[in-house]
């Protein structure tokens, strides 16, 4: 991942990527002392944003060179450098469900790094920049370069619901409105329920809203 302004063309993004990789290689050779100095406030901020969403991630290294977050059960490592970031996955032998779970963790972290850090995401396996809104299954299909992962209808529906709820959770702090039986909602609204937590409105009927929460879909009373 590399810093990039919105709206850049693929050619411009590729040039930024190549320049940043060269800069990282050169600076790493020139300044090994970065491993003994503390990380920047921005590195720590990004790491904390990711850990707030994924508490299972642990800090396994912290220096000016990079902050590393690790999740041993899913073999996921996240590296936050001064001007770049990266995610490493090692899912050898995983079931399809565990493949999906590990990639979801990585994907959610990428979303945070893009939103909070201003990065663009480049995937070396498919050799292009990713659109995190649409490319999940494309990446999943060539995951790790080891096996193609095909989703049946039930798995696809479960994955789509998981993405929807994770989006609601990510937006909860910034855009969620408190749930009220008297409020009116639109499909896609993010709500905060006092006991069910963050949810996203999936469908509407007269005085009823179908809302997806972490525990599942609930039909709740709402305004007209």
List keywords for this structure.
alpha+beta, 2 domains, four-stranded antiparallel beta sheet, 25% strand
What does this structure look like?
- This protein is α+β, with helices and mostly antiparallel strands and 224 residues long.
- It folds into two domains: 2-150, no CATH class; 173-221, no CATH class.
- It contains five helices and 13 strands.
- It has a five-stranded mixed β-sheet with strand order 9-10-11-12-13. A four-stranded antiparallel β-sheet has the order 2-3-4-5, with helices on one face. A two-stranded antiparallel ribbon has the order 1-6.
- Helix 2 (41-53) packs antiparallel against helix 3 and helix 3 runs parallel beside helix 5 (153-175).
- The longest helix has 23 residues, at 153-175.
- It is globular.
Strand order of the largest sheet: 9-10-11-12-13
Determine the fraction of residues in helical runs and give it as a percent range.
25-40%
Cα separation of the termini = 45 Å
Count of the domains: 2
Structural class: alpha+beta
Helix and strand run: EHHEEEEHEEEHHEEEEE
Report the portion of residues in β strands. Answer: 25-35%
Question: How would you sum up the major sheet?
Answer: 5 strands, mixed
Name the average pLDDT.
Answer: 76
Total strands? 13
Round the Cα radius of gyration to an integer and report it. Answer: 20 Å
Query: What shape does the CA trace take?
Result: globular
Question: If helices are DSSP runs of H or I spanning 4 or more residues, what is the number of helices?
Answer: 5
């Amino acid at each position: 991942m590399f810093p990039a302004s919105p709206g850049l063309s693929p050619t411009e993004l590729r040039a930024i990527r190549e320049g940043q990789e060269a800069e990282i290689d050169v600076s790493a050779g020139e300044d090994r002392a970065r491993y003994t100095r503390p990380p920047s406030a921005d590195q720590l901020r990004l790491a904390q944003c990711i850990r707030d969403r994924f508490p299972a991630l642990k800090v396994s290294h912290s220096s000016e060179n990079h902050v590393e977050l690790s999740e041993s059960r899913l073999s996921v490592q996240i590296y936050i450098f001064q001007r770049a970031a990266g995610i490493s996955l090692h899912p050898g032998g995983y079931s399809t469900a565990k493949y999906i779970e590990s990639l979801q963790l990585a994907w959610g972290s990428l979303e945070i790094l893009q939103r909070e850090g201003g990065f663009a995401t480049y995937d070396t396996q498919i050799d292009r920049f990713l659109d995190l809104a649409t490319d999940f299954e494309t990446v999943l299909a060539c995951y790790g370069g080891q096996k193609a992962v095909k989703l049946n209808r039930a798995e696809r529906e479960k994955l789509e619901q998981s993405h929807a709820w994770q989006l609601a959770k990510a937006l909860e702090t910034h855009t969620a409105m408190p749930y009220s039986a008297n409020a009116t909602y639109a499909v896609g609204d993010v709500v905060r329920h006092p006991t069910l937590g963050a949810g996203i409105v999936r469908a509407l009927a007269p005085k009823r809203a179908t809302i997806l929460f972490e525990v599942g879909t609930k039909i709740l009373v709402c305004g007209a």
